[in-house]
Design a protein that fits this description.
Helices cover 32% and strands 20% of the residues. It has twelve helices and ten strands. The longest helix is centred in the C-terminal third of the chain and has 24 residues.
């Protein structure tokens, strides 16, 4: 709160009142996520990546702040489910689409398998995708992407539509219509291609090369038994794409992806395209890191009540996406327009700021196309303390965060530039 208030007590109080205002609802804040995303998606094939992140706020037994349990152990906080829109060709982030932010009110005693979908937290995957159909209506095609948790029969049976597809990593070995199980079915598929790929370094996994096999085929998923699924079709036909490492190094867990998709996969090139699209899911993991660790450090908030923390999480998610967009655009390769991240009134301020901070030599000039997102990223990075030279280390998330803080101060000054004082 002190950082949001710029170190001024009056601004800190002002922002606190904003979060406490009953007219500022979590529903309206989330609706605001997509104001620029929908227009930016027009005419594109959009990868709409869904994921859920746990925001763990420090609590004690005497100071729970109204927060419910998250994950395992004694952690308490809020859950953030978001959908991130990406350009399928370039991977450029177009913004947030929809989602939910909530805290658990207590433990559910009715077993999971005896509850209808609308009474389960997993319903967020379907509700968010349904909202995406409205927000991304101008897109040429939409592919919803989710990890294992998004793989449940009701989603496969109800969500696909014309130019609206799903890709998910298979969570369990499903029964197939006509008999047999999903994982065994791939054994009848011929290996379509073998490649050696580079695996990036990740937590708990060093960078390495892996030789993998790719195979694919059509399968028909059988509707689960039970009254809760009787309203759904008795089968859903999808494509099963499997990427696996047959001979991993000793002591190393093999790479193994089992992907389900509603896309038609006619050849090996199309199968690799499904794998490539699914790999874009890691971009939303970047978003969570920006939100919780790099720059925003949301989990450090000391707000006293759950309602304020839920609203603050929704606001911070929007800010983290802007930082992600600037970081993606800094090299100018994608050439996205600035208005996918900034409204027109702010682009005018960026233009005036650029004139002020550019140097006199060619090396000190903004090298990017005017009103492109890369052009805006250069300006924000300069405001954040970057020297602007291409030979210097590229600006990172903290630099962009500091630059955005400065830019917001400039916006305040710009808004009162024509106010006359006696």
């Amino acid at each position: 709160m002190r950082r949001l208030g710029g170190g001024q007590r009056s601004q800190e109080v002002r922002f606190g009142r904003y979060l406490a205002n009953s007219k500022v609802t979590i529903e309206r804040l989330i609706e605001g996520w997509s104001e620029q995303t929908g227009p930016a998606a027009a005419g594109r094939h959009v990868l709409a990546v869904q994921d859920t992140s746990e925001i763990n706020f420090a609590t004690t037994a005497a100071r729970r702040r109204g927060l419910g349990e998250i994950g395992k152990g004694v952690g308490r906080g809020v859950l953030l489910h978001g959908m991130l829109a990406l350009d399928a060709d370039s991977g450029s982030c177009l913004g947030l689409v929809a989602g939910q932010v909530w805290t658990r009110k207590g433990r559910v005693v009715i077993p999971h398998e005896k509850r209808a979908l609308e009474d389960k937290e997993s319903n967020r995957w379907v509700c968010t995708a349904i909202t995406a159909k409205q927000v991304l209506a101008q897109a040429a095609m939409v592919t919803i992407i989710g990890d294992r948790e998004s793989d449940f029969y009701a989603a496969w049976a109800s969500l696909p539509d014309t130019n609206f597809h799903l890709i998910s990593r298979a969570m369990k070995d499903r029964c197939l219509a006509g008999g047999g199980k999903l994982f065994a079915a791939s054994g009848s598929f011929e290996v379509a291609e073998t490649r050696t790929i580079e695996l990036r370094e990740r937590v708990g996994r060093p960078a390495r090369k892996a030789t993998v096999h790719l195979r694919f085929g059509r399968v028909a998923l059988q509707r689960p038994e039970g009254r809760l699924h009787r309203h759904l079709p008795d089968r859903v036909t999808v494509t099963f794409v499997e990427l696996f490492e047959p001979h991993p190094p000793t002591g190393i867990e093999p790479l193994h992806w089992r992907l389900l998709t509603t896309h038609q996969v006619a050849d090996v090139a199309a199968a690799w395209r499904i794998v490539h699209w699914y790999k874009q899911r890691w971009i939303i993991e970047q978003l969570w890191r920006l939100l919780k660790r790099q720059g925003l450090r949301l989990e450090d908030s000391q707000l006293a009540d759950a309602e304020g923390l839920i609203k603050l999480t929704a606001i911070a998610a929007k800010a983290a996406v802007l930082t992600l967009q600037l970081q993606q655009a800094r090299d100018g390769k994608a050439d996205e327009p600035a208005d996918i991240a900034f409204p027109q009134r702010e682009i005018a301020v960026l233009e005036a700021t650029n004139t002020h901070i550019e140097g006199k030599t060619a090396l000190q000039k903004n090298p990017h196309r005017k009103h492109s997102l890369a052009w805006a990223a250069w300006i924000i990075a300069r405001l954040g303390g970057w020297d602007g030279y291409s030979s210097s280390r590229p600006p990172g998330p903290i630099t962009f965060k500091h630059g955005l803080d400065q830019f917001h101060i400039i916006l305040i000054g710009w808004s009162i530039r024509d106010v006359c004082t006696p």
